[in-house]
Write a structure and sequence with these properties.
By secondary structure, the protein is an all-alpha fold. The protein is built from four helices and no strands.
């Protein structure tokens, strides 16, 4: 499994959201997964606006510290 977003999205069936989840949970690399639900809710509550999920991801990333992008369970 490649540890870079750019490489992950080249794999069949892997989109940007899945790549960000893999980065965060498998590699501990901050990834901000934005799907249509995050896209809709973030705009509805006024957290960020964007015309596309990628644009909204960039705006959210600018507002949120990377350590909050992925929830890491502790044992």
């Amino acid at each position: 499994m490649p540890p870079r977003l750019e490489d992950l999205v080249t794999l069949p069936g892997v989109g940007r959201k899945t790549a960000n989840v893999v980065l965060g949970h498998a590699f501990g690399v901050p990834g901000l997964p934005v799907d249509r639900h995050v896209f809709r809710v973030a705009q509805r509550i006024g957290l960020a606006r964007g015309r596309t999920p990628v644009a909204l991801e960039a705006r959210l990333a600018a507002q949120l510290p990377p350590e909050t992008w992925t929830s890491r369970a502790t044992a």
